Every structure is written in C-alpha cells, then in structure tokens.
Amino acid sequence: MSRLSKQNEFLQPLRLTSGQALRTRPGQILPCGSMKGSWRYSRCGGFTLIELMVVMVIMLIIAAVVIPSVSNTTSLKATSAARILAADIEYAQNVSITYQESVTITFDTSAESYSLSNASGPLIHPITKATYTVEFGSQTGLEEVNIVSTDFPGGTITFNSLGVPDNSGTAKIQAGSKAYLISVAPATGKVTVQQDGS
After folding, report:
1. Up-side HSE of residue 63: CA atoms within 13 Å toward CB?
2. What are phi and psi of 91, to 5 degrees?
3. Which of 151, 154, 153 is closest to 183 using CA atoms?
4. What structural domains and CATH numbers belong to the chain?
5. What is the DSSP letter of 67?
6. Is 163 exposed, middle or buried (0-12, 13-18, 19+ CB in 10 A)?
7. Among positive and negative, which fits the CA dihedral 149, 162, 96, 88?
C-alpha cells in the first residue's frame, strides 16, 4: 500500500454500525458529532449566557465562604464583600438584558443586606433556590462587614431591559478600618470597586 493511500485511510472519518466497537488510530481526532447517539456524545457548541452566570454565582459563593475562612483579617473580609456586591450588581444587569425585564437591587443598610427583584417579585438564587437576598451579618466569616451607606435614590438601583441603570450611585462597604466604594456609572452601568481613602 502506498504512502498516499495510507494517509487517505488515516483521514477517513470513522463509521460505526450497530454493535460495532469504536477503535481509534493513534493521534486520530474524532469529528464533532461522530459519537452522536452514544453515551459519550457531547455537543460541540459553546456556553450560554445563563450557564456562565450560574458559574459566576458558584464562584461568588466559594469566594464568600473560602476567602474569609482562610484569613481572619478584616481587610480580606472587606475585599471579599466588595467583590460579592460588585458581581451581584453585574449579575442583576445581565439578568435584565437576558430576560428583557427590569431588575432592581434594594439596599437595607440597617440590616446590612441587599436583595434582587423584578416586577414579579424577588429573584430566586440560581444555586440555593432561595430568595436572592445577601445579608452579610449572617454569612460565615463576614459578620463584621457593614454596608455603611448608599447614595442611590431611595436606596435602590434598577436596570432596564437594555441593562441601563435608572441612576448612578455608590455603596460603601466596611470591615474594621478597611472600606471600599462600589460605584455604578450612568448610562453604561459599569461597576467599579476602589478602596476608600477617606
């Protein structure tokens, strides 16, 4: 058999009949979808926005539990809480765009908490399946975190179906002597986190 014919044979896609076992040659790459119908088949597409958001929420939960437990310093607790809040604001914006509905974040500084809701009521947390409310005082390792203040009118910020906030503003989070400012820009809704130097 010539070298060219051997190469052609090597490049031929695998064709399986009923009951035929799968055998691959060294270095052979199965074409996308060649295992369709079998238990090994997996789709060849990418991730959806919803899947990415669920992964992001899982990472937030890990950050909320692991980071404060690793170190008892208040600076890390403040950093962790600021990042959680920033990510939740971005999550609310993504949900409003994905589902084409307004999503509101309501802050309660007296309870050191905030919640996400839409026109139908409170949003459901995609992981815990409970009401999407974050209360720092009840989270392990974040008991010292305080939502010091917010300057959002009425203590709320709402993203419309285009992800545009109804107003801009800043929330201040503090743990011990370390404080962070989480700001939402007008029009774009871009979220920024910076340490409070005051």
Report:
1. 19
2. -65, -45
3. 151
4. 49-195 (3.55.40.10)
5. H
6. middle
7. negative
Buried b (16+ CB within 10 A) or exposed e, 98-131: eeeebbbbbbeeeebbbbbbbeeeebeeeeeeee
Please give the Cα distance from 112 to 90 (Å, whole number). Answer: 19
* Burial of 21 (C-beta count, 10 Å sphere; 0-12/13-18/19+): exposed
* DSSP per position, 145-162: -EEEEE-SGGGEEEE-TT
CA-CA distance, 16 to 155, in Å (whole number)?
A: 62
Of 192, 183, 123, 122, residue with least CA distance to 152: 183
Using alpha carbons, select from 81, 66, 76, 83 the residue that is nearest to residue 112: 81
pLDDT of residue 69: 55
For residue 14, pLDDT over 70 is answered with: no
Q: Tell me the two tokens of residue 190.
A: 């871009």
Rounded to two decimals, the pTM is 0.65
Which whole number is the average pLDDT over 21-36? 51
> Is the separation of the CB atoms in 82 and 74 below 8 Å?
no
Angle between helices 49-70 and 74-99 (to 10 degrees): 170
How far is residue 40 from each of residues 20, 44, 162, measured CA to CA in Å?
15, 12, 39
**What are the pLDDT digits (tens) for 89-133?**
999 999 999 999 999 999 999 999 999 999 999 999 988 899 999
